[in-house]
Automatic annotation (TrEMBL):
The modification N6-(pyridoxal phosphate)lysine is found at residue 191. The active site is at residue 191. This is Aminotransferase class I/II-fold pyridoxal phosphate-dependent enzyme. The keyword Cell membrane does not apply. One of its GO terms (molecular function) is pyridoxal phosphate binding. It comes from Winogradskyella flava.
Amino acid sequence: MKPKIWLSSPHMSGAEQTYIKEAFDTNWVAPLGPNVNGFEQDIKSYLNQDRHVAALASGTSALHLSLILLGVSHGDEVICQSKTFSASANPIVYQGAKPIFVDSERDTWNMCPNQLEIAITDRLKKGKKPKAIIAVHLYGMPYKVEGINEIALKYDIPIIEDSAESLGSLYKGQNCGTFGDLSILSFNGNKIITTSGGGALVTKTEEQKQEAVFLATQARDNAPHYEHSQIGYNYRMSNIVAGIGRGQMTILDSHVSKRRSNYEFYKSNLAKIDIIKFLEEPIGYFSNRWLSCILLDSFETREKLRLALEKENIESRPLWKPMHLQPVFKDAPSYCNGVADDLFQKGLCLPSGSNLTPEQLDRVISTINMYFAG
Ligand SMILES: *Cc1c(COP(=O)(O)O)cnc(C)c1O
């Protein structure tokens, strides 16, 4: 068996261990400490906007706290992009609220502004105003920021920007992770940078950040004993994990370049196969190309190609299955135009790690070429 080629695997810089060693040497082995503050500062500087960053245990916990900060509670409705990873939607249910799913458009594969407006007006007609909109920059491609913002503003509904897959992506020169009323990042093992597991909440005010940190550390009131007037969570990032994050921030931009060059490599080397289509960047969009995705002509081709790659020990994966088609969300209302489903049927994510070697990339290309040569 040939050695495994992974879809997206962790890629360390070497600098991580310096920060971790320092944490051990100074006994900062806790969910606070200099690495946590340093990592938050590094992200804040990178995002290059007037924002505040709280380092948390995961992207999912950041989404959960976002909903709490926006006052989402039992019986509320929250609009969520249907084409995404389940973690975007699950926290809605943690709050006892109801997810309302909205389909995608073809230019970015993300939330369709037209479908969004249809969903909002219909929910209003049915008697409830959605409490928030969760929009996602899938695979690193920014969503139609202006289109989505315009609708959100028109109906006065806050946006939670799920930027878990898009750290390093830009929309008209501005960093993804700075477009929401609240934004979240993820540093899970397969993301563009990883802390092994972790996430962050990006806020517009210092007060929101402090509120998030308060909730993330068990909501302890100011008292010598443990006093609680609210339900808290254990969602803060540890100082050890943040040390990995500081090391990863030093190579974020080179990871973005490498992932973008993976995409370019696939595109130019598969150009002769007419069936294969790529998602191009619209003007003004800069994707970190977290995953390089292709579209085939049918479900059958997509599955056969996936199995041909698997036989060569190459991991590939269908695009996210839309949430409105997931058994767990079968009762959730959805506003659909068929785009997310079609992309799911025909789309495949190819190995995309920043640590892929030229030999590994060649193996992927020759396997695909061999499949199409019959
Ligand atoms: C990874 C991911 C999350 C969740 O982040 P975790 O850190 O794994 O909890 C949320 N949304 C999207 C779109 C993701 O890809």
